[in-house]
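[audit] Reproducing an earlier prediction to check determinism. Same input, same settings, fresh worker. If the tokens differ from the archived copy the diff job will pick it up downstream; this log only records the rerun itself.
[audit] input (402 residues):
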Amino acid sequence: MNYEAYFRQQLEGLHREGRYRVFAHLERKAGAFPRAKRHNPGGPGEVTVWCSNDYLGMGQHPAVLAAMHEAIDSCGAGAGGTRNIAGTNHYHVLERELAELHRKEAALLFTSGYVSNMASLSTLASRIPGCTILSDELNHASMIEGIRHSRSETRIFAHNDPRDLERKLSDLDPHAPKLVAFESVYSMDGDIAPIAELCDVADACNAMTYLDEVHGVGLYGPNGGGIADREGLSDRLTVIEGTLAKAFGVVGGYVAASATICDFIRSFASGFIFTTSLPPAVAAGALASVRHLKASSEERARHQDRVARLRSRLDQTGVAHLDNPSHIVPVMVCDPVLCKQISDVLIDRYGIYVQPINYPTVPRGTERLRITPSPHHSDADIEHLVQALAEIWAEVGPAKAA
């Protein structure tokens, strides 16, 4: 077999479909979010970032940066290995803060949200004999991967549909172990799960619940505990999983649950046991961010104001976007080639960076620009984005980009 030829052929297929991914070469500017320097062959230029998952700009917050500098000066750069080898670094006290944030007994840190989902779901399901997983059909790839690695019987229920979940559970032994896995905020369409109703079904069928809050933590709830916290439902979830890489602005993942469950995952999950732990500076920055957002609602209030203003201006200008109750603003294009073209025009002509979203992140035919306003986007930034989209829409025609 000509391996190189095969790899080239597969890449050529991506080009033909219009979904070959090109990464913009950006350099974030500390203290100037959402501005970034763009490096390209024509020379560097400034862009405004409109698609960052650093939803609140906490990756630039002075308290976060100061905490990271202090940790580097006192502890150095690396963690020194896995927790089993290097021990628990002092800054991993972050786990106590996260447990408190979600009203749980304990929490466990991982190197990313992807790893925390994969390791926790695969460990919980695989080590409980006869466990069946009920998974929302739009769950994130990391959840799907964890479920797949568990090799447990899996049933997929219709997205955000408690009645279909009930049907999928109805013929299972009520005494057999079951785990219902779903997200709070779904990151592409921006819709929010009916957490209480899903918990009602799970409770009635004696099932555990596993909630992915990665797009909710920091952004919702009186202290940033996410959608479950906002709705007073944290105590009804068996496991809450979150990330430190989005609203908290750093990197890392975690689960919060009972002390026994966290100890169980800590003791059996290979994704925890055999992975170098979060470096002290990273944990320190995340700790500062979590503590700040627990005490301050200013960022959340400003964030929601920016989202509402952008939606209103898009409506007034006639640029269609998916209506949803969250902070994610998907502008539907529904064509991979056109989506990439619009993204290119935005950055080249207007200095606006919005990465195109295509398959396999979203289903074919639902390609989009996923816009994420932040508290740091000004009225002028919003006007510039809306006018740019309106001008591009007038060029490509609403029939092609709606």
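[audit] rerun output stored. Observation attached for the diff report: DSSP finds 15 helices and 14 strands in the chain.
[audit] end
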